[in-house]
Structure formats: structure tokens, C-alpha cells
Amino acid sequence: xxxxxxxxxxxxxxxxxxxxxxxxxxxxxxxxxxxxxxxxxxxxxxxxxxxxxxxxxxxxxxxxxxxxxxxxxxxxxxxxxxxxxxxxxxxxxxxxxxxxxxxxxxxxxxxxxxxxxxxxxxxxxxxxxxxxxxxxxxxxxxxxxxxxxxxxxxxxxxxxxxxxxxxxxxxxxxxxxxxxxxxx
Length: 184
Prior knowledge:
Helix content: under 10%
Mean pLDDT: 86
Number of strands: 11
Shape: globular
Number of domains: 1
Number of helices: 1
Oligomer: single chain
Structural class: mainly beta
């Protein structure tokens, strides 16, 4: 259940024994977590654990995972960001621990905001409702409903400076290699 009282409906298809396409499940996504530090609501919709992905009749959304994908995996989650209070009362190490991100691998540079982190993934972020700011090392960008961000392993933090919750769908795809840096 999200902070505004709306559950996220998750429909999963599969195949009957004869190969006919069928609905496997149609219900609210059950894997909902609330971060104690800031009230963020994260609903895990589905994961894969190989590339290419394999079909599964197991509930691949009923697993406990960190923020970023494991090697060779993907994650689909919807996150509802509450409005950020005027002053954030937590530190970056606490937030990284709550996100399941190791401090040694959670940042590429010093954190400019307590929510800063990085994952070894290419992330597609689709703003479903509201508006939000994405902070980078030295800049930021404002996103509105309908905007789509492609994030490639950069340090970043999501900050909701509005007075309404913001809901974002994230697809995280495991990525390899060092962060992109210009040649000198």
C-alpha cells in the first residue's frame, strides 16, 4: 500500500500446459517496503536473475533485494517519494545501509546530499505522477509527469521538493564497466 492509499496492481502472464497464454496472477503487488529514514515507499514488481531473462511461474517480485541489480539481473520497481522535509535528518552512510548499498561501492564521488548513491546499472526512470529533482555531482534536472530519464551508473539522488508525493517507475538493468569519463 502506498502512502496515498493506492496499491499497485500487478498482472503477470504465463502459459497453460497446452501453451495457451493466460493470466498467472492479478492482484496488488505484495512486496512493499517503507524506508524508515524518509518515508519513501518502494514496491518491487518483478526481477529477473539471468540475461537473457527466463520465464518463471515463481513470484519474482517476492524476493528481498538491494537497490541495484545483481550481476546478470534486472529489477522493476515503483517508488513513491514523499515531499522532502526542509532539512534531511540522516546521513549518507545511514541511507546507503537502508538501501542495501555498500558504502564502498555506493558512491563514485563525495555525496552532495544524504540520498546520493550509484549502482552498476542502466536505469530507466519514468515519472508516473508528480514531479521530482534528480541531483548529480554538480548539477540537477527537474522531471515532471511523463518525463523519462536514462541514468547510466552516475552518482545521483532523487529529491521531491514539491508538496505532493511523486511516483516513479524504475527499470534497472545490470551494467558492466567503469563509469563513463572523458579521455584526457
